[in-house]
């Protein structure tokens, strides 16, 4: 019977794509094809490869071809909320990228290309809402990275090479199955007290020794006192709005 075909999606022509080019406030050209029901990467946009920004987010694209390397000037690439299961190796040739958003796709660790570590000018990388079991240590090569999104994956650890990136200011790794922090207590069962000092009686002066003995006697007397079960506690000095303080109700009101 063959494989069931997915939705055809909207066909993007060169004319449609040209009409979707916008000039940003900083004068950069942005090709915005987001939220257009696209299921396959439109080949026609390769003729518009001189744009600075490309937005293909919120579509149903399953594959990005290696021809993405033709966008040599690209500084900003948004592919979030598609159906991507892998990325092309050629993405590593986009040396001018400072922003890459591939959040909310179907990416696994195995299908992340090693060439991601070649994006030396990358400032923001969003890998959230995918199926990543681990983060490649090679991403520690992204020395200019300032923000990274790792939320909603299947991560149990984050490599030190990524956590210790020199310019990293923000990392969102929420909602991952990291080990319970409370379990770390079992690795060291000894509870340590920072300001506990133990001395012998012979090391104390006579006045300090007497003071310690007096305090000990008071504590022992307190422990030996057994409260009478029949006697109700009396609090003669306790004031409540409905008892002895009722003559002064004005003082209890909020002014």
Short structural description:
With 255 residues, the chain is mostly loops. 11% of the residues lie in helices and 10% in strands. Residues 68-172 form the Disease resistance R13L4/SHOC-2-like LRR domain.
CATH topology title of the domain at 23-172: Leucine-rich repeat, LRR (right-handed beta-alpha superhelix)
Q: Given the structure, what is the number of helices? A: 3
Helix fraction by DSSP (H/I, runs of at least 4)? 10-25%
Helix and strand run: HEEEEEEEHEH
Instruction: Provide the CATH architecture of the domain at 23-172.
Output: Alpha-Beta Horseshoe
Class by SSE composition:
little secondary structure
Strand order in the sheet with the most strands: 1-2-3-4-5-6-7-8
Which stretches of 5+ consecutive residues score pLDDT under 50? 182-199, 232-255
Instruction: Identify the CATH homologous superfamily of the domain at 23-172.
Output: Ribonuclease Inhibitor
Distance between the termini: 81 Å
- Average pLDDT rating: 81
* Shape assignment: elongated
Region (Disordered): 222-255
Organism: Todus mexicanus (Puerto Rican tody)
Keywords: Leucine-rich repeat, Repeat
Protein name: LRC18 protein
């Amino acid at each position: 019977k063959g494989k069931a075909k997915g939705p055809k999606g909207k066909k993007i022509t060169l004319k449609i794509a040209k009409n979707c080019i916008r000039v940003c406030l900083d004068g950069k050209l942005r090709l915005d094809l987001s939220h257009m029901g696209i299921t396959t990467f439109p080949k026609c946009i390769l003729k518009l490869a001189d744009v600075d920004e490309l937005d293909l987010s919120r579509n149903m694209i399953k594959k990005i071809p290696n021809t993405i390397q033709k966008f040599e000037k690209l500084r900003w690439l948004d592919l979030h909320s598609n159906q991507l299961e892998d990325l092309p190796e050629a993405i590593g040739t986009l040396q001018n990228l400072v922003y890459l958003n591939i959040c909310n796709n179907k990416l696994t660790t195995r299908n992340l290309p090693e060439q991601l570590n070649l994006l030396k000018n990358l400032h923001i990388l969003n890998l959230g809402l995918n199926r990543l079991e681990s983060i490649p240590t090679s991403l520690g090569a992204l020395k200019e990275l300032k923000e990274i999104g790792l939320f909603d994956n299947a991560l149990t650890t984050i490599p030190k090479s990524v956590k210790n990136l020199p310019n990293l200011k923000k990392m969102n790794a929420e909602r991952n199955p990291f080990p319970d922090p409370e379990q770390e207590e079992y690795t060291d069962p000894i509870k340590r007290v920072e300001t506990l000092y133990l001395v012998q009686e012979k090391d104390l002066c006579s006045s300090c020794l007497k003071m310690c003995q007096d305090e000990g006697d008071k504590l022992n007397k307190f422990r030996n006192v057994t409260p009478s079960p029949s006697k109700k506690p009396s609090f003669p000095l306790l004031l409540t709005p409905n008892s002895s303080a009722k003559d002064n109700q004005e003082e209890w009101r909020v002014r």
